């Protein structure tokens, strides 16, 4: 293996292991033969996410994301010469014949975050999730050698559920950077204004709104969980771990009476450890 590729892969491992505990735990279930490929994909997703959220301004973020989009194309061009982590990503793309669309969809969603600060309808939010979350699940399925519209649909449900759970968990964080993911039609239905979301604690109507969103999000996990019964055992464990992690986030929101403004709902480390052990033992269903 060329030294440049080895260095790129090492950087992908560093990024993956240093950012997301659940990803590291989940990677324990991966076959060794494709573990590096997951690191390579995650490093790309993490890098794009950081450019979107940590660039200082939407203008700078768009400029950097546009540059990454050009660099990403190098991974798919026959004579492309990608650098850094994209060199490792290209190796994964080539060996697994991964399609380009999911990767460019992800970048499109990150770019949209710089232009769109709120969503009018739940359908428009789901459209965003189709590009911000669902591509990741489809890439994972392809890495597992699975290419089926039915499996894609089940995966989309789980990935959308995870994205929505994150939105309801991070209402205050998102508002601080000028974004509101709770659809306007839902806020209007419950009589909730932007000012209400800026309060230090959630009013009764805000809590009712969040409870409504949580209940609706639970259905996405229920719709997607049959996926775990139709994939290889190692992937089923990962799917159940992440899905139950999303449900645990929703439970944490409910446990504090849906007040996501007073403090950010979090799944305790003890609960995370319980889920990881249950997944390792094949006890998650």
From TrEMBL:
Q: Which Pfam families match?
A: SQS_PSY (PF00494)
Which terms does the record give in the GO molecular function aspect? geranylgeranyl diphosphate synthase activity; squalene synthase [NAD(P)H] activity
One annotated GO biological process: terpenoid biosynthetic process
Q: Which InterPro entries match?
A: HSQ_synthase_HpnC, Isoprenoid_synthase_dom_sf, Squ/phyt_synthse, Trans_IPPS_bact-type, Trans_IPPS_HH
Against PANTHER family, the record matches this protein to: BIFUNCTIONAL LYCOPENE CYCLASE/PHYTOENE SYNTHASE (PTHR31480)
Protein's name in the database? All-trans-phytoene synthase
- Which species is this UniProt entry from? Roseimaritima multifibrata
* Source lineage: Bacteria, Pseudomonadati, Planctomycetota, Planctomycetia, Pirellulales
Q: Which gene encodes it?
A: crtB_1
